[in-house]
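Incident review: delayed structure delivery

Summary: a single-chain prediction request sat in the queue longer than the usual turnaround. Root cause was a stuck worker, restarted by the on-call engineer. No data loss occurred. The affected request and its eventual output are reproduced below so the record is complete for anyone auditing the incident later.

Affected input:
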Amino acid sequence: MKDLDRADRLLETSALNAREAVLLKAEVAAMRSNLAYWILKPSQGLDLAKQVLRDSPGGHECVRSTALLGYGALCQMLGKVRQGERVLWDYLDDGRLNSQSYLARLIFSMCIIHWSEADTRKLLKVATELRDVSLGNEQSWSLSFAHYFLGLFYYERNELTDAVAQSTGQHMEQLRISMLSLRRRG
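Output delivered after worker restart:
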């Protein structure tokens, strides 16, 4: 929080032009929005996410997808599940986000909603989609969460062998290979 407060103060006193300042303020707001989820301030977080989506241009996909990552989970915390799903589906369906990593953030947010709502049927669908997107684009971070949510799905169904398999074996080998591939490129 202190670093974000400092960033806000610096932006208020900076010599940046108004357009640049708005973009940077949107980045700080997106981070604050996601932080609000973890410190249990969903109303504040949802307001910040809406601010980011309102104030940042469409091409500012990284910041917008970061806000959307928290949007669904924050809506779920406030009992506004349908609203969270609707906004995420709107972004998924209309192709506003062009990058697969940004797409993964929206699907990850859907996973949080459906897991929190104990809707295992929907959780299986979106966690599988997150896994497929992640595998197809070598996104190890998203892939690890896909297997986490698939593990939760199997755990809730008391299919413990399958639940454990999501965190061991072939899945972890795929993650290791993906990480090595990224390391070689870097």
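Verification: Residues 118-186 form one domain.
Action items: add queue-age alerting; document worker restart procedure.
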